[in-house]
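Handout, section 4.2: multi-component inputs.
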Amino acid sequence: MKNLVIFGATGSIGNSTIEFIKSCPNKFKIIGLSARSRIKELKQISETFKVPYIVVEKEEDAKILSSSLNYSAQVLWGDEGLKDLASLDSVDIAVIGISGIKALIPTYYALKAGKRVAIANKECIIAVGSFLKEIAKYHKAELLPVDSEHSAFFQLLQKEKKEHIEKLIITASGGPFYKTPIKEFSKITPEMAVSHPTWKMGKKISVDSATLMNKGFEVLEAMVLFDFPLDKIEVVIHPQSLVHGIIKLIDGCYLMHLSSPDMKIAIAYALNYPERVKLPIKSLDLTTTKYLIFEKPNFKKFSCLKLAYKVGKLGGVYPLILEAADEVVVDAFLNRKITFDKISYFLEKTLNEFKIPSINLKDINETLEFHKKVCEFTENLIKKSCL
Ligand SMILES: NC(=O)c1ccc[n+]([C@@H]2O[C@H](COP(=O)([O-])OP(=O)(O)OC[C@H]3O[C@@H](n4cnc5c(N)ncnc54)[C@H](OP(=O)(O)O)[C@@H]3O)[C@@H](O)[C@H]2O)c1
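Output:
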């Protein structure tokens, strides 16, 4: 039996992890959960599994939750709570399903404590992925991808020599507006943007999928996770979302990873690796898949994707700046402060105008502080434009 903690238990990744755990109660035990604002849902999950450790963001929520639980649990709060839960001796695996840079705290401390970290969060890999890999290596921890495309590559790369690989090809559904004319982008509402054609995900990643920023982030994520140069990572539009990752080999062969679009597959793989288990999902019937479509992405229309390649080329702190700015810009769009067509404008403006202070990306406090500064800078840009 492996002891598991789920960071971001009330979110989409958290829910899929819990669904998977329910299907194999004798293999994994949930001993810790974290969430930020959905305290009612967190209470319900905690009571279902009688989870002994819980972390929330605010002290007052910790008090309310602690006194309302129908069993006794240790309820912690804030960054210290995340750190303590990630470092607990009894934890074997940490699932990182928190969105945004906040995930860096449990990721870093779980790796430092030598755990297996099943990471869905892409923000902290983009920001300081190389450093996290170093920490994992030093502490004999494991950093395993849960993002479906990266899980696909992780699986495909197991048996291939790196020198045999010509390209990593990341598939993108194209999001809900792939066919929408660019002149209509200003009319796209948050409600339209969060309804993804294939995946049911949190609001932030859904908007990122609609702008293709998410695909750009996945390019940067793949570059770090698999140590691949940017010019060997390509994106293709594949609206069916059945092929999640493709590797092109030097002899002209392509290997593809194909499955139903269900995050439980990637989650289960990271939790069970190197084993595989039967899953409670409807598996894909290949005979109903008559053909597979792959198209070139439209970089002009989806300039966020272009920005990702730009920061990937620049390296250093630039991917972190893009990621931080995106957290603010997407939030502003969701709160109707800016229109959909302005998302890439504010990202580019931040990249061009933010004055970079010196920073040590191997210090997580400095990284978080730097991230905050970029966020404040982008917030100001948006505020000024609204005056
Ligand atoms: N969803 C997917 O299919 C998918 C696929 C690949 C990668 N990912 C990545 O996985 C991560 C999670 O995505 P998601 O779709 O599951 O997001 P989500 O549904 O919005 O869930 C986010 C979770 O993180 C918690 N959280 C958010 N901000 C927090 C903070 N500042 N401090 C502590 N907890 C915080 C939320 O708590 P409350 O809800 O209680 O506020 C919630 O439990 C993202 O990085 C995303 O890019 C997701």
